[in-house]
């Protein structure tokens, strides 16, 4: 077993820069982390809205007929519509492209400008969706929402990793994922109550409500300080040193400042940061930038988060029950993420990755067995007993908990902390782009896959959980307690990745 990264801040040769968790760092990371609210709110809101009959009858009448009028439709297939899934998935296709542009904005103008731009775009998209009268308005609004998410998801994890003292980097960075979970549960609760509004216009409040988290990040970003890393990168060294003293709460920042400057000098020698990613010494970084977000999406989590009400409705739950089940899974998601915040810098990244993978695998097999035994392949469950509903919801909640303290937050944390400064912005864009690409893919094909694969869909995702758990076991090093400027030692110590890094690495990065 390659116990790479068993070293932590105490006995790994780390410089251990002086500094403490200052109030300004805590406050700014909380504000920046709320960028996750807009991402989470959208994840939670779309599935609930697409299960509301007034919304379906107005924009997707064919789906409405399959769900409520055509008794011959297989239960698994009642939501099978490529146009309906495009409503959900178009956002993530837009986010894929916008995060590539956001890389240039983040590198040239700073992290906070990218957050501000993202908040403004999301605000415009939410307004259009809330006022939509035609499908094209829904899609345009979703595309603007996607542009906003691409900007914030590219810049917020970088901002958090650069502002946080290395000893608390994991916990503060997971603040982003924690806000994602808060956004999901708030959206699920609002969907539950808005669906009860007489007149059938509650879906407008659900979609338009995205303006509130957009306002939080838009206004908050105006008051955020920039990171010392970004200021040095833009030639503001004196201001960066003062900023570093301010956020660390100590005057002795010389060692950390020198390493930041050295990293920036190496960064300045890079003429083409995107082309630079292809260098052999960055192969480990690029591999994780691709595979971690890919595996994160193929855990199957967004089948639950995007389409929880639709999924529960498809396996026999009534509309109210399906929306409430989504609220329950959302609450579990929040509390499990708190466990990750507590444990990520205590237990390490690898331990959470591996435990979460085993937990998710067990629950996916259990859910597949439960649905298969009750529904078979014809999708006719008959009368659902209460115990069955409880078993399915409990299994899904345990699965969500496993994701929420492992691949959920760590899928954003680990890529954001492993990149040296000269490729950090462009590599983070690769991570977000891959995440958005496969989020789009899963969102677009899920309902069709459910229709054709039926309960076997959960076995499909369980297979990928096995693969990704083995990948972590053999290929992902431990990064707990390593200052972000010294992350190169992690790769040099790895029995496989060292052959790419050690022979081709120059400088502190």
Provide an overview of this structure.
This protein is mainly alpha-helical and 509 residues long. It has one domain: Up-down Bundle (Growth Hormone, Chain: A), CATH 1.20.1250.20. It has helices spanning 23-33, 35-49, 53-59, 61-68, 82-109, 111-130, 135-163, 169-194, 202-208, 211-223, 228-233, 237-248, 254-268, 273-276, 283-297, 301-314, 319-347, 349-375, 386-404, 407-418, 421-453, 456-475, 488-492, 498-501. Helix 5 runs antiparallel to helix 21 (421-453) and helix 6 (111-130) runs antiparallel to helix 9 (202-208). The protein is globular and about 70 Å long.
What is the secondary structure topology, with strand pairs?
Blueprint: H1 23-33, H2 35-49, H3 53-59, H4 61-68, H5 82-109, H6 111-130, H7 135-163, H8 169-194, H9 202-208, H10 211-223, H11 228-233, H12 237-248, H13 254-268, H14 273-276, H15 283-297, H16 301-314, H17 319-347, H18 349-375, H19 386-404, H20 407-418, H21 421-453, H22 456-475, H23 488-492, H24 498-501
Quick structural overview:
By secondary structure, this protein is mainly alpha-helical. The chain has helices spanning 23-33, 35-49, 53-59, 61-68, 82-109, 111-130, 135-163, 169-194, 202-208, 211-223, 228-233, 237-248, 254-268, 273-276, 283-297, 301-314, 319-347, 349-375, 386-404, 407-418, 421-453, 456-475, 488-492, 498-501.
């Amino acid at each position: 077993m390659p116990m790479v990264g068993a070293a932590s801040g105490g006995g790994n040769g780390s410089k251990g820069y002086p500094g403490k968790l200052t109030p300004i760092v805590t406050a700014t990371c909380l504000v920046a982390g709320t960028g996750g609210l807009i991402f989470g709110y959208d994840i939670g809101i779309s599935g609930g809205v697409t299960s509301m009959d007034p919304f379906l009858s107005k924009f997707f009448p064919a789906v409405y007929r399959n769900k409520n009028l055509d008794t011959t439709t297989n239960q698994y297939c009642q939501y099978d519509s490529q146009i309906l899934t495009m409503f959900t998935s178009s956002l993530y296709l837009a986010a894929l492209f916008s995060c590539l542009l956001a890389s240039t904005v983040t590198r040239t103008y700073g992290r906070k400008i990218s957050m501000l731009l993202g908040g403004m775009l999301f605000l415009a998209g939410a307004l259009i969706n809330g006022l939509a009268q035609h499908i094209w308005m829904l899609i345009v609004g979703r595309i603007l929402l996607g542009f906003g998410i691409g900007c914030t998801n590219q810049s917020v994890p970088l901002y958090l990793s650069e502002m946080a003292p290395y000893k608390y980097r994991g916990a503060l960075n997971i603040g982003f994922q924690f806000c994602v979970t808060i956004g999901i549960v708030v959206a699920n609760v609002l969907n539950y109550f808005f669906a009860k509004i007489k007149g059938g216009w509650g879906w407008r409040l659900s979609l338009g409500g995205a303006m509130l988290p957009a306002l939080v990040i838009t206004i908050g970003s105006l008051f955020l300080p920039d990171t010392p890393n970004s200021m040095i990168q833009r030639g503001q060294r004196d201001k960066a040193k003062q900023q570093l003293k301010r956020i660390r709460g100590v005057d002795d920042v010389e060692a950390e400042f020198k390493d930041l400057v050295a990293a920036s000098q190496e960064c300045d020698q890079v003429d083409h940061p995107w082309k630079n990613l292809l260098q052999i010494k960055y192969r480990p970084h690029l591999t994780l930038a691709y595979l971690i977000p890919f595996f994160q999406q193929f855990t199957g989590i967004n089948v639950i988060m995007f389409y929880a009400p639709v999924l529960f409705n498809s396996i026999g739950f009534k509309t109210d029950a399906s929306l409430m089940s989504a609220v329950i899974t959302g609450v579990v998601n929040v509390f499990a993420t708190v466990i990750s915040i507590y444990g990520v810098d205590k237990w390490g990244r690898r331990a959470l990755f591996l435990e979460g993978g085993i937990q998710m695998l067990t629950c996916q097999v259990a859910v597949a067995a439960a649905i298969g035994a009750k529904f078979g392949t014809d999708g006719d469950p008959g009368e659902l007993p209460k115990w069955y509903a409880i078993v399915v919801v409990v299994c899904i909640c345990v699965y969500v908990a496993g994701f929420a303290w492992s691949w959920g937050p760590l899928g954003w944390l680990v890529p954001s902390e492993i990149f040296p400064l000269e490729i950090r912005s462009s590599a983070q864009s690769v991570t977000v782009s891959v995440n958005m690409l496969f989020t789009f893919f899963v969102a677009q094909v899920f309902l069709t896959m459910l229709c054709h694969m039926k309960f076997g869909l959960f076995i499909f995702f369980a297979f990928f959980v096995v693969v990704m758990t083995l990948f972590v076991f053999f290929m992902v090093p431990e990064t707990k307690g390593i200052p972000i400027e010294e992350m190169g030692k992690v790769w040099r110590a790895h029995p496989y990745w060292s052959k790419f890094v050690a022979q081709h690495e120059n400088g502190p990065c």
